[in-house]
Amino acid sequence: MEVYMKALIPAIFIITLLAGCTPTQTNQGDLSPAPEASPDAMQESGEAMMEPGDDAIMLEDDEAMMQAKGTEYTIDMFVFGYSVEQIQASPGETITINLTNSDGMHDFDIDELEVDTLVIKEGETNSVTFIIPEDASPGTEYTYYCSVGNHRAQGMEGTIVVQ
Ligand SMILES: [Cu+2]
User: 162 alpha carbon to ligand 1 midpoint, in Å?
Assistant: First the structure.
């Protein structure tokens, strides 16, 4: 199966280029193999096929590959805030947040995405992974916040902005 997919991906990519279509990010759920199956093969075939004027297509494809691998952030929590206050995301992107806690007791919640971590103490760590909905439109904002005491009211929150 894996060998078959590796052979199939460059073929699909070349067909896409020949057809003049730009790759879309909607391949979850259809018959296309996931881009992360063989990013190297895609990269090589993409370069081999690249012609003047194809730069824009390649850029979009590189971005798609980055999303497929998922994005990790390390965010430190303190009284009262997060070390990262804004994250840029794309529809369908898998995001992992590695939480550290340098002061106090905190958690990390996103109501719309049903993210609700346990409260951790100073010196402890936690990790949470979630997926931005495929149909999230550009400009959509998801607020993450600490649900402990009045921390959110004290400013302990941040924003994920969909591009
Ligand atoms: Cu807190």
Answer: 24
Cβ–Cβ contacts within 10 Å for residue 116, how many?
Answer: 12
| Domain 71-162, CATH homologous superfamily name and number | Cupredoxins -  blue copper proteins (2.60.40.420)
Per domain, the residue ranges of the chain are: 2-69, 71-162
User: How many angstroms does the Cα of residue 74 sit away from the middle of ligand 1?
Assistant: 16
% pLDDT > 70, the chain: 58
Distance of CA 118 from the midpoint of ligand 1 (Å)? 11
How far apart (Å, rounded) are the C-alpha atoms in residues 38 and 13? Answer: 12
Ligand 1 center from residue 89 Cα (angstroms): 23
Helices 55-69 & 39-49, crossing angle to 10 degrees?
Answer: 180
**Ligand 1 centroid vs 140 CA: distance in angstroms?**
24
> What gap in Å lies between CA 102 and CA 79, rounded to an integer?
9
User: What does the pLDDT look like over 86-142, one tens digit per residue?
Assistant: 999 999 999 999 999 999 999 999 999 999 999 999 999 999 999 999 999 999 999
Tokens of 80: 């009262």
- Tell me the helix, strand and coil percentages in the chain, rounded to 5: 30, 30, 40
